[in-house]
Amino acid sequence: MLKIRKSLLSIFLLTLSLALLLAGCSSNGDAGSKTSSSNNTQADEKEKAPKEGGELTYALATAPDTLDPHVSGMAVATRVIKSIFESLVYKDENNEIQPWLATEWNVSNDKKTYTLKLRKDVKFQDGEPFNAEAVKYNFERIADPATKALTASVYTEPVKSVKVVDDYTVKIELKHPSASFLAILAHSNLSIVSPKAAKKYGSQFGLHPVGTGPFKFEELSANNKIVLSKFKDYHGQYPLAQHEGAAYLDKLTFKIVSEEATRIGSVQSGQIKAAETVPPQDIVSIKKGKQLKLWEAEAAGLSYTLFVNNTTAPWNDVKARQALKQSIDVDRIVKTLYLGTYKRAWSVITPATLGYDNTLENQKTYDVEQANKAFDELGWKKDSDGFRKKDGKTLTLRILDDAINREKRQDISLMVKEQLKEVGVDVKIQTSTEVQALLADKTAYDLRGNSRVALDPEDLTLFYHSKQIYGKGGINIGWYKNKEVDHLLEQASVEFDVEKRKELYKKVQKILIEDVASIPVYVFPYTVATTPDVQGLQFDSIGYPSFYDVNLTK
Predict the structure, then answer these.
(1) Predicted local confidence at residue 93, as pLDDT
(2) For 407-435, what is each residue's pLDDT tens digit?
């Protein structure tokens, strides 16, 4: 049996040192998210002694879908959820798993049985004890179809059974070995919820969330705000934290402010203390100015990519997809829209992700001459109106967009439309508030952009394995099928040698790029603007903000 244990002192010293050091991201994906703060009004000076009390109002770009961690599929929801809920383990900035609600674990020789020891000093925010029965209930709740835990149930697919050994010991048996299982336990979708509250509220639990985290839920006003308050009985030992006990803030309010200018303007005027997803032009001005602090983290997971529907003609032909990619000037899009504040993506995963393949960088992808030649060879000839036609049909690309221009994604579509016009492709942009329903219909679109914050490269399975086709309950929105990719992903999921696992994911990346399963565009830097009196904001290993240490100097 392999036994893993950390003393409380060693954990504290490790996390303190990690918090004090600004971690860069390595080119091979061995490090966690890159974080920094800059403020030309002394943001980089030594922080003042923390003060307790006060309220932080934090502007979100979009409204969360739900505050039920087992059900939510949105990164913006996770930014709230992580203050209310906690996981059994967490991943540090070196991509290593560390104890959280679980204090230690044993792994059987066949890698199919995990025995976890749990903390004995933790209570849920409703006063109920955290114990092995609560952990067992959480896995059962995720597996229950009535919960509709789409992503969480995919993550827990390897789980065969969960048994209570004693009050603070739980044994999890897997159907098959899983190299990412401990990382999966760290995922926010597997956060531990209060069994009492979950049973009481049922499908409405997302409106009445109860966890063990440093902030407890108080109020939710749809598309307006979410109010949390300090959980005074919080047990402490929050990951990467610089203090113990309860959070410093008395209240943490998330305000939904979709309009970029309003969001940042509210921070500049002092109406609110912080705002996320700072527009590129404001990132530039904040760095030059002396009003606000700017906090940044490079997210780990899947880059923002344009997923090509592999079932709709002519894009079901790899030659057409390659010509499509050659027609899109990604460099110009990223430089024009993001003013040097976003990095161009070269792979389907980000540099901060385990197994990132840096050999894909700086490859020539934009080649209009070759694109025109390929479309000609495929029989799509330019007509007098400038668009290509074949058998009486116009060469068309239908882009499916959200109704909100988050991270200028609608602007990307507009630039793609102009660029494809040059090679004779007629682009139709459809914006919708019912995107999920349209994605379930493989005939409804040809191109759809998406990204994902992720703890482990196994999330590639969710987006590119043939068993995860969107219309069949998965999130493979490109309807992509490739037996070799399936096999490599399956191999990687059970490969416990980290170096060999990296190589398998590098092979996957190369195939996806060559096959144009999707077209990488940018690596998302999560940015936050705050007033100068905000200090203590941190980010976890994949770029989510942590409010536990946040305090106000006045």
Answers:
(1) 83
(2) 999 999 999 999 999 999 999 999 999 89
For residue 214, give the CATH number of its domain: 3.40.190.10
> Domain check: are 221 and 338 in the same one?
no
What per-residue confidence (pLDDT) applies to 26?
31
Left if phi > 0, otherwise alpha if psi is -120 to 50, otherwise beta: which for 94? alpha
Query: Are 199 and 248 in a shared domain?
Result: yes
Query: 274-276 and 55-60 as β-strands: parallel, antiparallel, unpaired?
Result: parallel
pLDDT at residue number 535: 96
Q: Specify whether 181 is located in the same domain as 88.
A: yes
Nearest to 91 by CA among 35, 153, 31: 31
* Total-model pTM: 0.83
Rounded to an integer, what distance in angstroms lies between the CA atom of residue 531 and that of residue 39? 10
pLDDT at 48: 85
Output DSSP code: residue 419.
H
Q: Which two tokens stand for residue 447?
A: 């191109």
Residue 189 structural domain = 2-297+529-552
CA distances from 310 to 47, 321, 442, 482 (A): 52, 9, 9, 11
- CA nearest neighbour of 518 among 299, 303, 301, 298: 303
Q: Strand pairing partners for 520?
A: 305
pLDDT at 473 over 80: no
pLDDT of residue 16: 32
> What CATH number does residue 372 fall under?
3.10.105.10
Is residue 508 located within the same domain as residue 547?
no
Per DSSP, the three-state class of 201 is helix
Q: Give pLDDT, residue 31.
A: 41
SS3 392: coil
Q: What is the DSSP letter of 128?
A: P
Whether 207 and 117 share a structural domain: yes
As to burial, measured by CB atoms within 10 angstroms (0-12 exposed, 13-18 middle, 19+ buried), residue 169 is middle
User: Who's near 486: CB < 8 A, 6+ residues apart?
Assistant: 465, 466, 467
Which pLDDT belongs to residue 41? 33
| Total domains, the chain | 2
Check residue 150 and give its pLDDT. 86
Q: Pick from 512, 511, 500: which is nearest to 179 by CA? A: 500
Do 412 and 286 lie in one domain? The reply is no
pLDDT tens column, 107-137: 999 999 999 999 999 999 999 999 999 999 9
Q: Are residues 213 and 72 in the same domain?
A: yes
Over residues 50-76, the pLDDT tens digits come to 999 999 999 999 999 999 999 998 999
Q: Are residues 291 and 307 in the same domain?
A: no
The DSSP code sequence of 495-547 is: ---HHHHHHHHHHHHHHHHHTTSEEEEEE-EEEEEE-TTEE--EE-TTS-EE-
What integer pLDDT is reported at residue 191 of this predicted model?
98
Strand partners, 161: 173
C-alpha–C-alpha distance, residues 393 and 386, integer Å: 13
Q: Name the E strands within 26-101.
A: 35-38, 55-60, 89-91, 97-99
